Amino acid sequence: MAGQQFQYDDSGNTFFYFLTSFVGLIVIPATYYLWPRDQNAEQLRLKSLRRVHGRCLWYRLRLMKSQQSIVPTLKKAALLFGWAVFLFLAYKVSKLDREYQEYNPYEVLHLEAGASIAEIKKQYRVLSLKHHPDKGGDEAMFMKLAKAYSALTNEESRNNWEMYGNPDGPRVTSFGIALPAWIVDQKNSMLVLLVYGLAFMVILPVVVGTWWYRSIRYSGDQILINTTQLFMHFMYKTPTMNMKRLGMVLTAAFEFDPRSNKEAIIRPTDNIEVPQLIRELGNINVKKKEPPFCYPYSLKARVLLLAHLARMDVSDNIEEDQRFVVKKCPALLQEIINVGCQLTMMATSRGGLRAPRLTSIENCMKLSQMVVQGLQEAKSPLLQLPHFEEEHLRYCMSKKYKVRTLQDLVSLKDSDRRNMLRFLGEEKYDEVLAVLWSFPYINMETKLQVLDDEDSNNITAGSIVTVTVTLTRKRMSMFEKEEDAPLPAEETNAEEQGDAKTNKTKVWQNKNKGAKKAAKSKKKKLTKKKPVTQQQAKGDKAKQANGNVAGNDVAAASKAEEDDLSDKGSESDEAEGNKDSPSERDEESDKQSDTEVDEIAGDDEEEWEALQQSIQRRERALLETKSKVTHPVYSLYFPEEKQEWWWLYIADRKEQTLVSMPSHVCTLKDTEEVELKFPAPSKTGNYQYSVILRSDSFMGLDQIKPLKVSFFFSYTIFFFGNVFLFLCYIFIR
């Protein structure tokens, strides 16, 4: 009766097939992902950046690391060893003989299938005389001949072979296991059991437990959960956080505590060098007893951060610790901003909670710039350039040049710039210009609308407003002072304080008024021609809303002026037409009304196409994953390569509140389109907002663009609201 039988590989041949496949599955993907093929590319990239970034700390550290690192060599050696093992196993497998062959008695007797009994007996007699052991033949071969002869001459054996492929009848089902037999040998049982126990009961649980314990301690941004809770506590406790308080909260993060992070180190020399730095820095509020600001790790991190901002030299013992603290700061500041946004959303939705002030969130952004550039808050942004020192600023800020920002320096004539920077030699001057031209200049265009609405330009109270901001990155060499250029953040101090009366009239405000007047005049002239239909009234309301919304758009004023000129032309035509007969005047008025309706229909189609295109862009943006590698930041004192990233948000600077949550733009390489959404206020009226773009790496490149929005009353919501209240009243009665 047939059964089942498990067999281990006594010769170990099958195990080689398994081992070869296993090694190949590891070596081939590891070679693709781990082979240091980008080493030469990294050298070429650093060489191309040398002219601009050659003096940066991160560049010098990266260049030194690429030249002295032995990690690529070790990777290559390990991968080559793996390939050597794989090729050896493949060669071993190719030399193995196949032990299994299909049994065929005719082949054993060297006969063709279907031979007669007489031919079988004759052939067996010849071969048996040849292979008989008594005649000096092979005994194993003789046994095969006897078995084949019996299978073909015995009727029962022959039937079994024809039915089951075996003269003895149905065989036992055999399952081969690709493990050598010595593994299950009784002599090696204790050793095998010990290996299994260590692998599956000790090593595997320890590895999984360590990974799980580490993963639950960190958030998705690789920030300790305890640090996030600490930031939330202090952001709620201190809604208005000045720069000094923010620095204390930042350096209290558990990333700097050796008990929570093994990368943080407390050295024996800290008791000598940290107090010395405290004396040099001056008043840094050392005696504050509030935990965790009074803890040693927090005090050390705060001192090292302040020394970095003051560009002080530290000893070699704690220089590595200072680099560690500085590298962690941008990610921690981003976490503080995220916490502030969460508290703002909670305060808006629930009420009764204290939301962080806009000043606190913007101080985080400013501190990120200060950390990357190694500058204090009150320092000039010109100190970001190489070879600029404090004593050189008096040449720039003199009454003759009045250069206080990077934009002012770019706008100077070449002769004036060279004369002002005469303290620099030719080589240093060329290096300063190369660095200055590499700085980014962002062109910001805004478009305000209500998506998924019939009239996307007529903004009603309570609707979801979408501000589409198109950011175009250019080099600072492309910067030119224009009347409609975005306002630098440094020039809006009066606006930040909410004193609108002391502000000068901006160019965008005059253009907005011109657009309003043109839209009103156009509406009046259209009403003189013919009574306005409902569809035309709707189109006029949309155009009027366009004039109110696009207050900071130069194209709105020019378009309104063109419409005004076309209306004047139509008036002159109408005056000439008055000389004609009344029937001709009626025909002309009918033609004009038809053309106006066609124009309105064409505008609706254009709006519909624009809406569909915006929806498609949003869908593509959700599917695409863009690289966060944009452009390396020029930073003289930051120890790690930093990419150019930006914060974009809408704020009410008068009320010191966020209107939209800050969007961290990390993919702006050439052009990027960002959508900022916020709910419109419940009260109608005109609101003065600001679209703000801030860099997380550069000082003095922030932009603030005014955004004036008019919210109208929604008669549809009013009607359905009254209907709902009426039905509720009837149901209650």
Task: Describe it.
The protein is of the alpha+beta class and 733 residues long. The protein has five domains: 4-94; 105-165, Orthogonal Bundle (Helix Hairpins), CATH 1.10.287; 185-217; 221-377, Sec63 N-terminal domain-like domain (Sec63 N-terminal domain-like fold, Orthogonal Bundle); 446-472 and 494-717, Immunoglobulin-like. The protein is built from 26 helices and eleven strands. It has helices spanning 13-34, 39-48, 50-53, 57-68, 71-94, 105-108, 117-131, 139-153, 155-164, 189-217, 225-237, 243-251, 270-281, 296-309, 316-350, 358-373, 393-396, 406-411, 414-420, 426-438, 493-496, 507-529, 534-549, 554-577, 582-623, 715-732; strands spanning 4-9, 173-180, 440-449, 464-475, 487-488, 646-652, 657-658, 663-665, 671-679, 685-695, 703-711. The strands form three sheets. Strands 5, 6, 7, 8, 10 and 11 form a six-stranded antiparallel β-sheet that branches. A three-stranded antiparallel β-sheet has the order 3-4-9, with no helix packed on it. Helix 1 (13-34) packs antiparallel against helix 5. The model is unreliable at 481-485 and 493-587 (pLDDT under 50).
